[in-house]
Design a protein that fits this description.
Blueprint (H helix, E strand, L loop, with lengths): L2 H29 L5 H8 L3 H19 L4 H21 L5 H17 L2 H7 L1
Length: 123
């Protein structure tokens, strides 16, 4: 296996894990009821219908991020989505490291899948 193939595989693994996290526990938590959900919504300043829309948006962005033809715009939209998460968490005085790390990893995942991105950044 050449280095290019290894980096592409690493990119797909990183991207797949991010998409699985977004479409799995994160989005599912927005679609189902669970204990403490209403309290969390009140703290964050969201309604249940808004949270549902955020979940749909999250799944859509994750799918765009996975498909090669839409991965670049998906990565940009994912970064914007995570920026909103950072602001929301800052507003309610919660840790912000996770969405920031996830955004950086998303760009690394895309960059490993499309090495031209790293060449563009390096020039």
């Amino acid at each position: 296996m050449n280095p290019s193939s290894k980096s592409r595989i690493a990119g797909w693994i990183i991207s797949g894990l991010i998409a699985a996290l977004l479409m799995g526990p994160s989005a599912i938590g927005k679609f189902v009821d669970w204990e403490g959900k209403l309290e969390m919504l009140a703290k964050m300043g969201f309604t249940e219908s808004t949270l549902f829309k955020i979940g749909v948006l999250e799944v859509g962005i994750a799918l765009l991020f996975l498909f090669p033809r839409t991965a670049f715009i998906g990565t940009i939209l994912l970064t914007a989505y995570l920026g909103g998460a950072v602001v929301t968490h800052l507003r309610v005085d919660e840790p912000i490291a996770f969405p920031i790390i996830l955004g950086v990893l998303a760009w690394f995942g895309y960059g490993f899948r499309q090495p031209a991105l790293f060449r563009l950044i390096g020039s």
